[in-house]
Amino acid sequence: MIRWAYIVYLLVLKELRLEWRGRELLTLLSCNAVFMAVLTGAGASSAMLDRITGNKIFPMLLWVVFILSTLSSVSRSYESELEGRAFEGLLLSGVTGSQMYLSKVLISTALFFVNYVLLLGVLSVTLDQVVWSVWKELVVVGLSSSSALASVVVILGAMASTSRLRGVLTPLLALPLLFPLFFAGLEMTTELVLRGALDPTSVWPSVLLAVNAVFLIVGLSLFDFVIRD
Amino acid sequence: MPKSTRSLHPLLALLTLCAVGLAQWLVLMVVPNERVMGAVQRIFYFHVGSAFACYASFGVVFFASIYYLATRNPKSDLLSLAAGEVGFAFCTIVLVTGMIWGHSAWNTWFRWEEPRLVTFLVLWLIFLSFTILRNFGDPAKTATHGAVLGILGAASVPLVVFSIKLLPQSARLHPEVIEHGGLKDPSYWWAFGLSSFALMLLAGLLVWVRYRVGYLEESWRNKQGEESCDDT
Questions:
Q1: ipTM of this complex
Q2: Domain boundaries, chain A
């Protein structure tokens, strides 16, 4: 088990180094997020939304922009593996599909979370919202949503990476599966932004947890099939 | 394909034709007009039966996908493809008939507050993404990728249904006919039962036909491959 986890750790380091060398995914994610957030802010301004209406639509815009900016950036995440035939090499050296999957999910979670925090900042500025009073709760929601998003996107990204529509296939495949995550994240953010706290009887944290668990288990079990073929 | 299973095809087609014909006669000629909704209520018989067929197709996709990944039997991949496409068609029928009903009964085509409408919209999107993958995915890996997506999609269905039920509902419009003891007249029950059965049979027949088309395409492709190998 320790050896298994150590290999995952090494793979995470490899992913981090690759990202650090090229900074492709982070640049794409953050640029997409900032552009979309600025466009949204400009749209809200031209619609002459007052601060209260802005407060009401802030969670929805945050979630739509977060999911769309993330999904439109992830098509590059498998380029280096495909160019260097890294999967074949790793499989030959005894690394399992589930180890590769977990390392990819961990690194993607970190990147998506950075994207979420960036968006939270930029959108709260462009829509003139103050969300700092609930930042800790929003960070928890963002982190758990990023991991659920990563669990889905990593496996679907691997499937899309070898197709002729690789640039657009991942969002098309992922969006229908992300509805439970979208609803859970949106409802929790709305409660936090509008009421200042999460309702203790809210079921949405459990939904988010279930989404994480289901997609992670399915991904861990099936990733091997996706890359071995 | 074995000869014994091939001979089932016309039998199933004949049975489906009889069941669909009888269901149409019951729904359009025998069942009286509903007191409040009038003739529009007859959409119910197509709508609910199509929903059953859609759920059943989802089940077939799920189990055929698992079986394919476990055994790599190309026939289960063909079955999953066939059930996915037929399920998508029936899901479209559910959505369209639901919207026609909604517009007549509630004066609106679609409401986000209505959990069943949203559930079927999301199911439709999942089937759509499955169809997109089967058509535009990497041809050498479509079978495996389709199976993985089939399992992922089926795994997300309970989450979709549960999360949509939790959404704030300002107006719950969808009628719960069976739950609230509706369908008082026995002819309603006969029409409902038979139309559901007929649509399930129709779905089965379409899956079977699509499966056979896929099988023949596959055989033809293999034969072409063998011939080109012989030529070289």
A1: 0.81
A2: 2-228
